[in-house]
Amino acid sequence: MPLMFRVSEWVALGYFLYLATAAMLVDAPSESRRCVLATILVAAAATVALALQTGPAAFAARDWMPLANLVIGYWLPAQLVVKTKPRLERALLRFDRWLCGKDVMTTYFAKAPRFIIEYFELSYLFCYPIVPAGLVCLLAAGMRDRVDMYWTAVLVAGFACYGVLPWLPSRAPRALETVPSADRSVVRRFNLRVLDQASVRLNTLPSGHAAASVAIALVLLALLPVAGALFGVIALSITVASVVGRYHYAADALSGLAVGAAAFEVARCLW
Q1: Which of 58, 75, 151, 199 could in theory staple to 66 by disulfide, Cβ–Cβ 3.0 to 4.6 A?
Q2: How far apart (Å, rounded) are the C-alpha atoms in residues 79 and 119?
Q3: Domain span including residue 209
């Protein structure tokens, strides 16, 4: 029986091939390189093996497999980073200060109403569940035939951001600036704990959170306008929150918006 890959599966396999090539080119420790290559082999083999299966269970598993590939695709590039680029970090900070003003972020944390701070911190927290939530919306609406389009947009958006990390590594602005304490926000304390325990602790330029959430919103807006409008509000809130919370630079967020829109156009053209 011939393999019938979905477009999103081709995207994942192409990204894994790119990462394998990057692992051989960057100046990374041999142990990290071997770990990346071994993980790529397992993930690619699992994707291909699942494509060979038939039946409802396999079909459902393929609907969700891209989520695992997205997470793997986020973690692997960071294993190839030895050190960040201080000149890049300084340039990103200069752009922030030119765009937003030198003290605007400090003023925001010190003087913004607490409900505003909590809203944006909660919005940023939604960057994690928004990916599976978008898929659930499509499945609940009986649009299983559009799942591949959805994942194509999301994977193109996410991988386009994560794949740049080995070449343009930087630290998040909160690691470089004196940010006021998180005492005013319960959600911020939780966000920082999550990032400390479950992130690669590196900054992606463009922002993968902004890119993926915008791609999701645009796909849903095209297929389910009401849900898409809601997800659009969430996506824009995530993007703003990533900057005011100093999780990302403004350049990350703005370029992430553009990547997310481009990823949607790629998926739409393929469908």
Answers
A1: 151
A2: 33
A3: 84-270
CATH number at residue 252: 1.20.144
146: left (phi over 0), alpha (psi -120 to 50) or beta: alpha
Task: Measure the CA–CA gap between 6 and 47, rounded to whole angstroms.
Answer: 10
- List, in order, residues 6 or more apart from 103 with CB less than 8 Å away: none
Record the pTM.
0.93
**Residue 170: what are its φ and ψ, rounded to 5°?**
-150, 165
Whether 44 maps to a domain, the answer reads no
In a domain, 137, yes or no: yes
Backbone angles phi, psi at 82, to 5 degrees: -95, -45
